[in-house]
Amino acid sequence: MIDPSWVSGLAALLFIIGLAGAFTRKNAIIVLMCIELMLNAANLQFAAAAVHHGDTTGWVYTLFAIAIAASEVAIGLAIFLAMYGKHESITLDDVNVLKN
Amino acid sequence: MKFLSLMTRMGLLALGFILIATVSADAVWQEASDDAPTTSKLADDLLNEWGLPLLALGILMAVAMIGAAYLVRDERMENLLWEFGGEEE
């Protein structure tokens, strides 16, 4: 079995890649993908900890996080569609007011 | 602005190194448990210990799907007419 510390290191690396992408990119879909990357890094960490401690709580948290991520993606893509319909762009610089 | 951007990138890099070094440290992963979690134990926990949060999660997902469908509704005339049972002229 893979040592959990390696899985944990991979999760940290994925989290940093997601964080860097969310900070530096301007395309809304890429930012959403980077947020998903961070969520999946956290899931990986939960799964590694669950196996290490022999407890299912980490798996339960992972399942919950996956479900919440699915909801978030559905809402996010719907917002992007509405945004594109109004502004004809999903560049985050073009959308700077939380109105209409 | 370029300086701020550079500092952000440097900070992210430093954070990455610190994070990887911290979570990969052997001290964090000592005292491993002998019993591995099983899928039947997971199912048991989900339906007993985590039953109420699971129900709340289902409601949250249903609300999210309804919200997403509402956000992407198509307001073209033919769709509105179809929805209200009329015919387009």
Describe this structure in words.
- The complex is a heterodimer of chains A (100) and B (89).
- By secondary structure, chain A is an all-alpha fold.
- Chain A is 78% helix and 0% strand.
- Chain A has helices at 4-24, 28-53, 57-87.
- The longest helix of chain A has 31 residues, at 57-87.
- The N and C termini of chain A lie far apart (52 Å).
- The longest helix of chain B has 22 residues, at 2-23.
Low-confidence stretches of chain B: none
Helix content of chain B: 55-70%
Give me the number of helical elements of chain A.
3
Largest sheet of chain B: none
Radius of gyration of chain B: 26 Å
Structural class of chain B: mainly alpha
The description of the largest β-sheet of chain A is: none
The total beta strand count of chain A reads 0
Based on the coordinates given, report the CATH architecture of chain A: Orthogonal Bundle
Specify the overall morphology of chain A. Answer: elongated
What is the N-to-C order of secondary-structure elements of chain A (H for helix, E for strand)?
HHH
Beta-strand residue fraction of chain A: under 5%
- Oligomeric organization of the protein chains: heterodimer
So how many helices of chain B? Answer: 4
| Number of individual domains of chain A | 1
At the first level of CATH, the class of chain A is Mainly Alpha
Overall pLDDT level of chain B: 85
Give the CATH topology of chain A. Helix Hairpins
Order of helices and strands of chain B: HHHH
Query: Globular, elongated, flat, extended or rod-shaped: what is the shape of chain B?
Result: flat
Secondary-structure topology with pairs:
The complex is a heterodimer of chains A (100) and B (89).
Chain A: H1 4-24, H2 28-53, H3 57-87
Helix pairs in contact in A: 1-2, 2-3
Chain B: H1 2-23, H2 39-47, H3 51-71, H4 77-83
Q: What features would you highlight for this structure?
A:
heterodimer, A: 100 residues, mainly alpha, Helix Hairpins, elongated, B: 89 residues, 66% helix
